[in-house]
Amino acid sequence: MTAATKLLDEMCHLTIQSLAPMDTSEHFKVLKLLGEGSYGKVMLAVHRKRGTPMALKFFPRESTPIFSFLREYNLSLSFCTHPSLTRALGIAYSTPSHYVFAQQASLFGDLYDVIIPEVGVEEEVCHRVVSQLCGALTHLHHLGFVHRDLKPENVFLCDSACRWVKLGDFGMVKSQGSRVPEVWYSSPYCTPEAEVARGNEDSSKGIKDGDQKDESKKRIWVSVEPSTDSWALGILTYAMLTGTHPWAETASDCFSYQTYLEWFDRANRPVDALDVWAETQQPSLNSELPKAPQFACFTSLACSFFHSLLDPRPGFRGQPECALRFLGGNWVLEPERARLQEKREKKSGKGALRNMKEMEGRGER
Fold first, then answer.
1. Which residue in 61, 137, 242, 301 has the fewest CB atoms around it within 10 Å?
2. pLDDT tens, position by position, 266-300
3. Which one, of 15, 60, 165, lies nearest residue 104 by Cα?
4. Which among 220, 224, 177 has a CA at the least distance from the CA of 196?
5. Among 311, 328, 327, which residue's Cα sits nearest to residue 319?
6. Selected catalytic residue, list 110, 149, 169, 311
7. Neighbour-count burial for 306-339, b at 16+ CB within 10 Å, e otherwise
8. From CA 259, how far away is CA 96, in angstroms rounded?
9. SS3 labels along the chain
10. Residue 202 is a catalytic residue
11. Over the stretch 103-152, which tens digit does the pLDDT of each residue have?
12. pLDDT at position 360, please?
């Protein structure tokens, strides 16, 4: 446990004594709904006296432990000092039905809204977002925290061109090395190592229709590690570049994922397959790796980026700060870039991957 994680626990015990009741309408003018989920809802509001715009995050008291609320609030207030992390504004209070805290408002929606289905976003936009997310995740990791819920819906936009984005929603954040129940869910964002928990009591929401839950599989406890965020960053980048996912779910019975594993194994095979001590191939900026079918439209530079972050072995998975070295060059091959641009000009609408959003049954991880 780092000094930051210890301090966070101490701050939660202190602020629980000063959380005061307050009437929302007396101090804020609520304008509109910004988002909602299993945690509660987020409303755009303006402070009545100061005129400051902000986002008010409401947590139902009946389903939210007070310590969980205070942990997210204090983490966002005191430790999210990186410019690409959403920060709380020092206002926290309770109502008869909710716990509430104020945070910075991102007025241009989230990344989910700008990814065009089957097209994605422009490559330069993707580079800008990846660069900022690498910095945000590295900041959290160096403090000893793991986000554990990186996805387009949690990346908020401060402008329409994604020149400034902020990673938010810290309800799933845990300290690195802490022990949590492993959860498998049907999504490409789920890591390969989580499949050991498939079908157990914590992963019941992730079981497909028609599957039988194995009553004999008990809870599996695992250590929280930053490699979880690295995997999600790789999947998110693929979604931005293509408007789709490389596979439907990270599972042994998913054909697309198995195809990727076969490619990965070939790419990491020792030069001399008979020499068990031979070093496996490591991705580099100039290496020419064989490509899995899902990555045929990408340059070798991009394939090396995905090879690093989407390593099925969590101990070998690249860190976000290391991913920065793959930025700056072309990621999409010219024919594919031209095809995507043509589709982008014809296609309109917002919100990609809707089916994946409905399929994800996350639960506490």
1. 61
2. 877 764 544 544 444 555 555 555 678 899 999 99
3. 165
4. 220
5. 311
6. 149
7. bbbbbbbebeebbbbeebeebeeeebbeeebbee
8. 53
9. CCHHHHHHHHHHHHHCCCCEECCHHHHEEEEEEEEEECCEEEEEEEECCCCCEEEEEEEECCCCCHHHHHHHHHHHHHCCCCCCECCEEEEEEECCCEEEEEECCCCCCEHHHCCECCCECCHHHHHHHHHHHHHHHHHHHHHCEECCCCCHHHEEECCCCCCCEEECCCCCCEECCCEEECCCCCCCCCCHHHHHHCCCCCCHHHCCCCCCCCCCCCCCEEECCCHHHHHHHHHHHHHHHHCCCCCCCCCCCCHHHHHHHHHHHHHCCCCCCCCCCCCCCCCCCCCCCCCCHHHCCECHHHHHHHHHHCCCCHHHCCCHHHHHHHCCCCCECHHHHHHHHHHHHHCCCCCCCHHHHHHCCCCCC
10. no
11. 999 999 999 999 999 999 999 999 999 999 999 999 999 999 999 999 99
12. 45
**Amino acid at the residue 163:** R
Residue type at 31?
L
Structure tokens belonging to residue 121 = 């976003």
Q: Name the token pair of 216.
A: 């004999």
